[in-house]
Design the sequence.
């Protein structure tokens, strides 16, 4: 603590005096306060002067010291007026630090904070996107209710900004505004709806986050964006992926029918959880036709699979829970390998992952059985990790592996970590009850442990043996005798109580020992623990009823002792027992049944996993970890009996047609779509506004451009993928088209047109690619995108010119919708016709190979690295 | 999501706090301190602690607790992973992540944290991007800044933030273009009393240091990619290409990064490069115990084993040890009961040996269990799984880079039960 006061003194930027009050209540001891009174006020003055000086360096120094104060949790609020003046500083670092200060204190000094608002409003119009974004960030972080309308306006404007980075910040601002003023919900939902349509991977994660926070129940907003989100997923930044995957899991559970077949139940009882048995019978009757998975359902499962390879543990866990909750059971197996991989990670990650594995392993043993050895405990693991591993090992135990496991447990029992050793004994007990074959072996092993030197181990063994014996109808006179002897040496109350209870329960089987034990206990009664005293009373009562000749006096002696015990529970119990067993004239009808009451057949306790009841929480959530429903936990709904209309997700095709018909609207939409070329556009954003008038005409050219840029980065596979994907999409949309027909005549016609063209082009594509020629007319997305860095400038120009007239309409639909797709397709969609599949498959292969050959020839950089 | 962050040192002082939403009083940490007290050891503090109004999620690294305060449901791994990323970023910025360093650079720390989260949701976590926004402090830069009045804060949005390769800066230039790859494998193993392997796994990583001009596109192929059982990639690796051809194709980030981590499972037989012979015995009546261990090479493919250290947590009953090593130095801490023996290189002709007696507490009964021996070692120029890089090719740039690859095998969690 003294070190604390030191640091205060040396770093004190002032303001300590004011903060004393707060400091005293906080956890850091108030000792930091000594010697602060002297120079404080002066120092604050000093800071103020520095802030008011003309020199930026002085201001910067002052701000740095103030931020240092904030970081330490000291109050710097009285400097507010001096600081706020610098909000318009030209120096960007000062500005940023002022922002930090404002966000921290604006809530406390609302009136003064208003002084800064106009600066932010100006900055929101700044040509530099970073400045626009940070202005929005700070403006929305100032929690001053008066400026809600200003914030609303700013968010609306920013949500239409050309820069996806600013739009991302707008999505964050939505949540801030919502928490400041929930009244704005309706308006904010509109903005969310708009941003959900955004095609930028940068925005996707943040807007879904806003959706989850503001209106998680408005699942209808997702429909139209579902496929886009699935397709973008791989390219979204990792944090966004986690949020989107969790949201899509919930979505899938409301929109698709269960892929879990009835047969699965034999293997595990998972279903019982979601519906009762009767329900299932009904269901089987209802569901006569074989189950076919909705292609959209499949799309989600397929597109999340590569993310299992993510370096981010949260993403892997999110995918794992998605598979667990929505994929067919036969496919969920692939997650176990990735989860086991996470066990190599930090302690905290291990802890969460092990918890989730524990829950999973109760329901589906088979998933983790091959990885049994990965859960072996190391002596260096922290105790909490050890116990979790033990839990999983217990869940995985079966007839085949139990002997290996028991050998492993033997090592654990000897561990120096006694808490862990005790947990192991519990585990052995559970294995013994679960697997009948080894019950006797376990029991013998536990009896051996009774002679262990460590008391905790012995006590735990006694407790477990007690439970085991209770479950076994067979006689174990020997063991009970052995345990009776232990009473002399054991001191742990729970263990003593357990032994006494056992003897009492089996007093007729050990007629010679029982009374003797009672005699000994009567002697030590007064010095025993309450827990033990209660069991002595019980033992006495039971013996009195079965063997009153020998024990009558002893029991009465004990009852007398109990009558004057300090603990009221014991006095109470004594009174109760006396009334029940000792016959007197007042005793009621009950005493006739005393023997039945005391020596009734008691049901054996169930040794169950503590993780048994966790599975009603969605895996990977905080609620699951804590086994309490956390604030804001969103329940995972049951599968619907009948899937809601799948065509709702189709709407985007019509949407597109709408969007593209009015040329005036094109400007905004463009900005949203071409996120690749954004950075360039940003530089000359002034030009782009004038350009955008002609945008609809030159669209495809532009689009092509952006593709060329992007291809520098995205792999050839990804690109060819998008071509393939679009093929699939077309097929699908064509199928569904009949449903959607008649909604709006003119649009439909247009759509039809587009569609036929696209499908044409996709055919052309595949053929052209097979030739692997790079002719300009046969230029298709997959071609243009594939590593065109190699292609020379002239070629690029040529292709552009050549393509513009040809692909005009076509590319609108294709590129813009499916451009960012980079999802590898692992499994073919079953709904596809086999011939088309073959085509597509061929297309895919041929592109990649052609790319390679194309690549290797010009670049001779390739040089063999000799592996030493 | 994440409301606030508190940094707490080992003596229980909160030395930094940062709030992204309304201010949460630091008294919330009392619940943390309570849990800490209950856990006795730092590493046993539960990572998730519920309090009446908040949830505290913490990670413990470099002797500092990073405690995040959250208010609503959130995937716990999300927060934990983020906190680890924060620590990694600090390490990247300052070289080390320790209390004094954080205190000295509090302004930079604050600026970085401000950029990493907005409203509790991660904004920029790629260190390449962060470094463009806020430049890491160097002596040179501090001097330049004081003279010219320029700042550490970038005023342009890093181009990476908007591109499809957010991990790479644009306009990278080097005079010497070089790319180094280190294949590092760690053996996790548990060896039982008799010397047979209970479980053994290999965890490998490929760390890269790439300093190449422009936008190079690299491909790395292996002689035996089938060995890799389970892999996780840096986001730059094209997954499709790996799936179809088992080739790593990527545009690398600038500087140091972890390209790939992989796992060679227990199913494949793992060659254990060392053996440990031990003879540790306590006698019931006497207050002396015998102690002898020998470490020797086994299946090393002709390479030398270096950097060998042996540590062992002795039972509480051991008062002191008098040992003589045949080579290296050893220490025994009578308070923590930790024995460590710094062996150095193993000479196959003369396997190192540590021998002597232990003095036990008089009257105390002999410990139930012999201590576990933890082993550390290194083998240069060997990947124990047999993984070999075939070739590295570069596309997209004209120059010829210098390429290098290094292999190393280390002990991970290598335990010998006695």
Sequence:
């Amino acid at each position: 603590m003294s070190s604390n006061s030191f640091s205060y003194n040396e770093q004190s930027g002032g303001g300590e005096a004011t903060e004393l009050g707060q400091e005293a209540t906080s956890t850091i001891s108030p000792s930091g306060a000594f010697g602060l009174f002297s120079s404080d006020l002066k120092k604050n003055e000093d800071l103020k002067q520095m802030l008011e000086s003309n020199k930026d360096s002085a201001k910067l120094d002052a701000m740095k010291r103030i931020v240092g104060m904030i970081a330490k949790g000291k109050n710097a609020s009285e400097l507010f007026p001096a600081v706020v003046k610098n909000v318009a500083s030209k120096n960007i670092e000062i500005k940023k630090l002022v922002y930090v200060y404002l966000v921290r204190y604006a809530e406390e000094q609302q009136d003064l904070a208003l002084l800064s608002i106009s600066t932010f409003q100006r900055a929101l119009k700044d040509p530099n996107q970073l400045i626009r974004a940070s202005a929005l960030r700070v403006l929305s972080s100032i929690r001053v209710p008066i400026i809600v309308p200003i914030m609303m306006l700013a968010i609306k404007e920013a949500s239409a900004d050309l820069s996806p980075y600013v739009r991302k910040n707008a999505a964050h601002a939505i949540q801030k505004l919502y928490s400041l003023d929930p009244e704005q919900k309706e308006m904010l939902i509109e903005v969310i709806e708009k941003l959900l349509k955004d095609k930028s991977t940068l925005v996707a994660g943040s807007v879904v986050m806003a959706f989850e926070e503001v209106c998680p129940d408005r699942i209808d907003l997702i429909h139209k964006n579902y496929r886009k989100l699935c397709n973008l997923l791989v390219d979204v930044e990792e944090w966004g992926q986690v949020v989107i995957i969790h949201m899509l899991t919930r979505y899938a559970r409301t929109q698709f029918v269960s892929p879990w077949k009835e047969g699965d139940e034999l293997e595990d009882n998972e279903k019982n959880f979601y519906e009762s048995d009767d329900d299932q019978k009904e269901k089987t009757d209802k569901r006569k036709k074989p189950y076919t998975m909705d292609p959209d359902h499949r799309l989600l499962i397929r597109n999340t699979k590569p993310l299992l390879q993510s370096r981010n543990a949260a993403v892997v866990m999110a995918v794992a829970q998605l598979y667990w909750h929505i994929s067919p059971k036969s496919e969920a197996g692939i997650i176990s390998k990735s989860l086991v991989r996470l066990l190599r990670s930090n302690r905290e990650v291990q802890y969460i992952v092990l918890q989730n594995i524990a829950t999973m392993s109760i329901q589906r043993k088979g998933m983790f059985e091959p990885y049994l050895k990965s859960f072996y405990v190391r002596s260096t693991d922290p105790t909490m990790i050890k116990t979790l591993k033990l839990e999983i090992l217990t869940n995985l135990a079966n007839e085949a592996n139990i002997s290996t496991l028991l050998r492993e447990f033997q090592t654990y029992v000897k561990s120096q970590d006694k808490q862990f050793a005790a947990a192991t004994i519990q585990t052995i007990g559970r294995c013994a009850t679960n697997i009948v074959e080894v019950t006797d072996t376990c029991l013998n092993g536990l009896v051996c442990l009774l002679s262990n030197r460590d008391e905790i181990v012995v006590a735990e063994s006694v407790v477990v043996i007690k439970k085991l014996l209770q479950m076994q109808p067979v006689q174990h006179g020997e063991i009970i005798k052995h345990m009776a002897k232990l009473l002399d040496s054991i001191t742990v109350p729970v263990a003593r109580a357990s032994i006494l209870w056992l003897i009492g329960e089996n007093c007729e089987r050990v007629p010679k020992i029982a009374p003797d034990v009672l005699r000994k206990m009567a002697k030590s009664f007064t010095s025993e623990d309450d827990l033990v005293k209660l069991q002595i009373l019980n033992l006495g009562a039971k013996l009195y009823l079965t063997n009153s000749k020998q024990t009558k006096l002893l029991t009465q002696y004990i009852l007398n002792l109990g009558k004057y015990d300090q603990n009221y529970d014991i006095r109470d119990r004594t009174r109760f027992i006396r009334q029940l067993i000792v016959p007197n004239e007042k005793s009621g009808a009950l005493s006739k049944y005393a023997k039945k009451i005391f020596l009734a057949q008691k049901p054996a306790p169930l040794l169950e996993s503590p993780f048994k009841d966790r599975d009603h929480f969605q895996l990977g959530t905080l609620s699951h970890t804590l086994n309490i429903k956390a604030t804001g936990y969103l329940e995972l709904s049951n599968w619907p009996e009948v899937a809601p209309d799948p065509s709702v997700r189709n709407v985007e095709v019509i949407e597109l047609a709408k969007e593209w018909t009015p040329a005036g609207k094109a400007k905004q939409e463009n900005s949203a779509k071409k996120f690749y070329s954004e950075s360039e556009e940003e530089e000359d954003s002034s030009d782009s506004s004038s350009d955008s008038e002609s945008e609809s005409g030159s669209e495809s050219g532009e689009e092509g451009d952006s593709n060329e840029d992007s291809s520098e980065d995205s792999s050839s596979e990804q690109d060819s993928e998008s071509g393939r994907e679009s093929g699939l999409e077309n097929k699908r949309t064509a199928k569904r088209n009949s449903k959607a027909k008649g909604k709006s005549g003119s649009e439909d016609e247009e759509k039809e047109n587009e569609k036929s063209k696209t499908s044409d082009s996709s055919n052309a594509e595949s053929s052209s690619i097979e030739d692997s020629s790079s002719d300009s007319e046969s230029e298709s997305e997959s071609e243009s995108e594939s590593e065109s860095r190699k292609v020379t400038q002239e070629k690029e120009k040529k292709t552009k010119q050549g393509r513009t007239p040809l692909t005009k309409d076509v590319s609108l639909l294709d590129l813009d919708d499916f451009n960012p797709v980079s999802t590898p397709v692992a499994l073919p969609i079953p709904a596809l016709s086999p011939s088309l599949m073959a085509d597509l498959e061929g297309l895919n292969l041929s592109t990649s190979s052609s790319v390679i050959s194309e690549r290797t020839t010009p670049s001779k950089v390739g040089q063999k690295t000799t592996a030493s | 999501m994440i409301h606030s962050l508190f940094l707490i040192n080992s003596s229980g002082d909160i030395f930094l706090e940062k709030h992204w939403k309304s201010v949460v009083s630091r008294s919330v940490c009392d619940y943390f301190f309570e849990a800490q007290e209950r856990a006795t050891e730092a590493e046993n503090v539960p990572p998730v602690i519920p309090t009446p109004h908040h949830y505290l999620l913490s990670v413990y690294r470099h002797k500092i607790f990073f405690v995040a305060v959250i208010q609503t449901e959130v995937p716990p791994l999300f927060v934990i992973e983020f906190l680890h990323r924060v620590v990694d970023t600090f390490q990247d910025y300052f070289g080390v992540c320790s209390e004094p360093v954080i205190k000295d650079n509090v302004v930079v720390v604050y600026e970085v944290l401000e950029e990493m989260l907005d409203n509790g949701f991660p904004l920029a976590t790629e260190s390449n991007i962060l470094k463009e926004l806020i430049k890491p402090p160097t002596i040179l830069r501090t001097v330049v800044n004081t003279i010219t009045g320029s700042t550490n804060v970038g005023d342009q949005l890093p181009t990476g933030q908007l591109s499809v390769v957010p991990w790479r800066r644009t306009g990278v230039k080097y005079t010497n273009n070089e790319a180094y790859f280190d294949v590092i494998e760690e053996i996790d193993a548990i060896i039982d009393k008799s010397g047979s392997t209970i479980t053994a796994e290999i965890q490998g990583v490929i760390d890269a240091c790439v300093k190449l001009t422009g936008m190079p596109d690299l491909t790395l192929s292996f002689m035996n990619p089938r060995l890799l059982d389970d892999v996780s990639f840096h986001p730059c690796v094209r997954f499709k290409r790996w799936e179809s051809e088992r080739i790593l194709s990527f545009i690398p980030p600038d500087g140091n990064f972890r390209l790939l981590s992989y796992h060679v499972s227990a199913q494949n037989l793992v060659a254990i490069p060392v053996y440990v012979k031990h003879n540790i015995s306590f006698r019931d009546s006497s207050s002396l115990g015998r102690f002898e261990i020998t470490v020797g090479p086994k299946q090393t493919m002709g390479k030398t084993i270096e950097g060998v250290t042996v540590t062992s947590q002795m039972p509480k009953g051991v008062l002191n040890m008098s040992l003589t090593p045949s080579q290296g130095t050893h220490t025994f801490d009578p308070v923590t009961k930790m024995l460590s023996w710094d062996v150095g290189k193993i000479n196959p002709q003369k396997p190192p040996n540590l021998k002597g007696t232990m003095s036990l507490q008089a009257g105390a009964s002999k410990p139930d269990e012999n201590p576990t021996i933890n082993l550390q070692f290194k083998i240069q120029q060997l990947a124990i799984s047999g993984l070999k890089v075939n070739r590295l090719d570069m596309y997209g740039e004209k120059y010829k880079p210098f390429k290098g690859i290094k292999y190393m095998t280390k002990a991970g969690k290598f335990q010998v039960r006695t």
Summary: Chain A is about 65% helix and 0% strand. Chain A touches chain B through 138 residues (CB under 8 Å). Residues 491 and 852 of chain A are 76 Å apart (CA to CA).
